[in-house]
Design brief:
98 residues; alpha+beta
Length: 98
């Protein structure tokens, strides 16, 4: 299994839209859903309510890379929209089963 984790800082006025886009019925889930090797995405809110993390689960890193190539336009479109909702986005890391 392969996962990648992102941290997002979101202004209060953007929280509802951010949660809508990144949540279980959001735009990312709709793009990923049903694609080979996609498992799930989880969205977590820090207790301080000032930051979120997402964890995306894929069967392998290569399958995720292949997905990104095949759906680059759609991926970039959602990503651009999401840039407007956050004031900081940080890649925490990529992890694979050992």
């Amino acid at each position: 299994m392969y996962i990648y984790i992102w941290e997002y800082k979101v202004l209060d006025e953007n929280r509802a839209e951010f949660e809508s886009v990144y949540g279980s019925d959001g735009e990312w889930e709709k793009l990923f859903s049903g694609k080979d090797s996609y498992i799930r995405t989880e969205l977590f809110l820090d207790k301080s309510r000032s930051r979120y993390i997402t964890i995306d689960y894929w069967e392998s890193k290569q399958q995720f890379i292949d997905f990104q190539k095949a759906f680059r336009s759609e991926y970039d479109e959602i990503n651009k929209k999401c840039d407007e909702l956050t004031y900081r986005e940080t890649a925490i890391g990529e992890f694979e089963n050992v």
